[in-house]
Amino acid sequence: MPPIRIVLLIILWFNFFGTALCQTQLPTKKVIDKLISQATKLRESGDFEKSLLISRLALRKAVAIHDNVLIAENYNNVAANYNDLVEFDKAIFYYNKALIYANLTQDNAVKQRINNNLGNVYCFEKKRYEKGIPYYRKALEYSEKISDSSQMAFTNLNITWAFFDVGKFKEGEESLKMINSYYKKHNNDFIIVVLNMLNGMYCSYENEDIKADYYFKEAIRLGTKLNEKSDLSYSHLEYSKFLLKRKDYKKAYENLNIYTKLNDEIYADEKIEKANIEGVNFELDEYKRTIDKIENEKDLQFQSLKKSRIIVLLFIIAIFVLLLFLNSLIKNNKLRLKSNADLMIANEELIIANKKAEESSVLKTQFVSTISHELRTPLYGVVGITDLLLEEHKELAESPHLNSLKFSARYLLSLVNDILQINKIEENKVVLDNLSFNFTDEFHMIKNSLSFIAKKNNNKVFIDIDPLIPESLIGDKLRFAQILMNLVSNALKFTKNGEVYIIAKQVEIRDKIHAIEIKIKDNGIGIASLDQEKIFDKFVQVGRKELDYQGTGLGLPIVKKLLELFGSEIVVESELGKGSVFSFIVNFECNADKTIEIINNIQVDMTSSQIFKVLVVEDNPINQLITRKTIEKNNYSCVVVDDGFKALEVLENQEFDIILMDINMPLMNGFETSRRIRQKNIDTPIIALTAFDKNEITDEAIMAGINDIIVKPFEVVQLFKIINCLILKTKSVV
């Protein structure tokens, strides 16, 4: 057996036998409960001496097992003895000790009894009703918790008696009614004597003397029958008061005399003297427990010292065992050094692999960016020429071939944008903007943009916007519109001859932040439950068994990732053949001050009679043609140059209202050309007309002095809106 295991076994052996030696047999709760019951019966019979003796024994046992409920019950019994012995201050002291331990437990029955007893002492013995009544109220609360109607009746009985005792009959009237109602249901003999007495007192107060006389006599009759000496004595006392009020002095004296005799029987002098001696013994026992506690602490310190010596011995043994292993450790040291060297080599290889992975990620980003740029440039030509053909030759508007060409070009452009978008999100390069926008206009723009898909599949699109949602909101409207565009286009694509609902509902407003729930609902083919998680994976497409639904499989992954940027998540509810519901919640800020700005932000009138002069710097002949045609068609004059050097030459001799600058040009790119233009103190606004993604070139464009960026292919309306804004802004400054 190895030395370390031997040491562990020695430690366990010492702990086991040390614990066994310290254990002693403790009393059981059953034994203590029996003692408490015995002490209670002795107290109720008037044998206070024996009751206190047994209570002292029971308390010792309860303290030994640390049972707070039993400790509280014993202190309660001791206090009750002192209460019966007319030592009310001691009774209050021990009742309070009982309450301290009771409050450490969950036993509401014990708490009820102690609070009721404290109420009795303060009200009936100390005559401090203002202090006793709150204890009764607390006792009632605990009675309700344990659903004990009998205890509630007893407590209400005490409250009634307390109020009647000081002549406050109206305050005790409700409690009396409750007790009478309880007795009608339960016929409890324990309260019948006092209940009749209290009814007699109340009737006497109400001057119903016949009823009062009946109740008092009934209380005395029942008290005599049931041998309830204490309650009987009080009944004679209260009846004597009633008779005195009626001026029946003889009977009043007789009843008062009976009351005195009964009290003498209850409180025999000999018993009180013996009980007082035992009460002193009980207090001495309290001091003894304190001394025992100190001695126990000394014993514990001694045991701790003894254990410390054992620990020192075991420590010495452990050191000896460790020395035995020292030689083995020295022998293994060389092997460990060799292992460390191998690990260092492996770590260097991991660092190299990590660098390669980072380089690969950069190359991937550059590849995606380059491919997207190279694809956008010819697509600009295809889309532009298609639009020109459709505008210049109206007879070709219904040509299926030309429309297919336009659709295919735009579909390919959408694919390029999706790939670039998902790549940017994964690299954490997307940051949400905070711009003011018109919420309702975004929905109608989406509906109009997708009208061709709705028409193709014979679908109807309905918009339902909660009127509580403000028109003007602040947020990233472009990403929000992209989310809506993807979800609505999916709904239209997978629905034939059906309906698509775009629903917006305000769910919460907090600190000017409006939480809006968006639902896109359709009655299309639906999604199987097994596929509902897959649809958010890249390049995954479901539901293509019979029909070919075009798509890249990137729309929903983009939606999910964009919503994560908004701090939201998308929820899908769908059933095959019945349709789907996509829902999410987005937060937008409301800023009413920007509403005027949105209202005044109207479309630019591109049919204006004023002619502006535009310089186009573009090296691609097809793009030159498209841009020239687009500008001249809208009554602008246009000059086109092939590169940056020619642009600088033209600007030496001519003035222009706006410059459209391509970025990726041979000889000198658009950034450098713009810098040189600004160096010549030419303030003409420059718009970068480029196939690069806007976010990739924004910083460099600003440093080069470029005023705005438009990504090709572009919307013609958007181009001329920016052109007019920049020209008018420049002229107003001048």
CATH superfamily of the domain at 432-600: Histidine kinase-like ATPase, C-terminal domain
Shape: elongated
Our measurement of the CA-to-CA distance between the termini, rounded to an integer number of angstroms, reads: 98 Å
Structural class: alpha/beta
Biggest sheet descriptor? 7 strands, mixed
CATH architecture of the domain at 432-600: 2-Layer Sandwich
Report helical residue fraction: 55-70%
Low-confidence stretches: 11-23, 544-549, 602-608
Top CATH class of the domain at 432-600: Alpha Beta
The number of distinct β-strands equals 12
Mean pLDDT: 80
Could you tell me the CATH topology label of the domain at 432-600: Heat Shock Protein 90
Strand content: 5-15%
Q: From the alpha carbons, calculate the radius of gyration and give it in angstroms.
A: 49 Å
Number of helices: 25
Keywords:
phosphoprotein, elongated, seven-stranded mixed sheet, 67% helix, Rossmann fold, five-stranded parallel sheet, Heat Shock Protein 90, 734 residues, alpha/beta, 25 helices
What is the element layout, followed by pairings?
Layout: H1 3-22, H2 29-44, H3 48-64, H4 68-84, H5 88-102, H6 108-125, H7 129-145, H8 149-165, H9 169-186, H10 189-205, H11 209-226, H12 229-245, H13 249-266, H14 269-392, H15 400-426, E1 435-438, H16 439-449, H17 451-456, E2 460-465, E3 472-475, H18 477-493, E4 499-510, E5 513-522, H19 555-565, E6 571-575, E7 579-590, H20 595-600, E8 613-617, H21 621-633, E9 637-641, H22 644-653, E10 658-661, H23 670-679, E11 686-690, H24 694-704, E12 708-711, H25 716-733
